[in-house]
Amino acid sequence: MGIREKFAERFPVADVRPVATPTIPGPAGAPTGKPIASPIRLRRLPVERQWPAWFIVAFQATILLVGIGAWETGAKLGWIDAFFWSRPSAIFATMLTFFTAGDAMTDIGFTFRAAIIGFVLGTSAGTALGLSFWWSRNYAMLAQPYIVCFESIPKLALAPLIILVFGVGLSSKIAIGVALTVVVSTLTTFSGVKSVDRDLERLMYSLGASRWQVFCKVVVPSVLPWGISVLRVNIGLALTGAIVGEFIASQHGLGRAILYAGQTYEIALVWVAVLVLSMLSIAMYLGVSRLETVLMRHIKR
Fold first, then answer.
1. CATH of 84-300, one of 3.30.980.10, 1.20.120.1200, 1.10.3720.10, 3.40.50.720
2. Regarding predicted confidence, which is higher, 227 or 102?
């Protein structure tokens, strides 16, 4: 008995008959045609079913209500220290007092004006400074180290000096907001300037365009998405500048209210001021989103 017979006897296998490959019949007289390629099973892209808007809003509201209820229940049962964390019922009562008998509108208006003016001035100045680097590469190389150095400095550490120079009024809070937003806008816009298509600039020059025309028709539209992307970041920075300035020295503002409440252990008032700040930031965010929509529509045109 040979090796094959011994192997077959020890390891028997099923009788598998080869399946003939289907072929395309060739012309008359031809022995065979071309084999037909086996069909390929196409996979569909995974598509997630989008929830309705009302369901998302209802789900979000449910999460919020459950969280508030758990907080209130935990504070009443002693699981949460109400002295340090307060409770939603006390926060609601303090909010009613804050808006009816306190200086709520004065404080909100003060903080809102400081944040908005600092946001507009810092973003505008930073965008203009970043765009100016396109006109001269030597000027950009000279100014860039100073801008990077100023960016690395913790601007909030300069807040007491700014308060001394500009006083305890609104101007010092605006100055802090400008210091926080101007450098971010400058560096972001400068990155956009460096990414402008040089071939498109050469094409414009070859067609007889002036530098001003190239700047308006090529550079500004190319850099505009970069400027839009920094707007949402500057919202938080401008609010931070206003609140920190009010922490240090101020006669009005939500920051002053938070500092006073923390010193007197009125934790509910701290939460009220934080909630009002959140509503203020949401309003600014919605305004910036609307501005972004308008500017992006202008870019597409």
1. 1.10.3720.10
2. 227
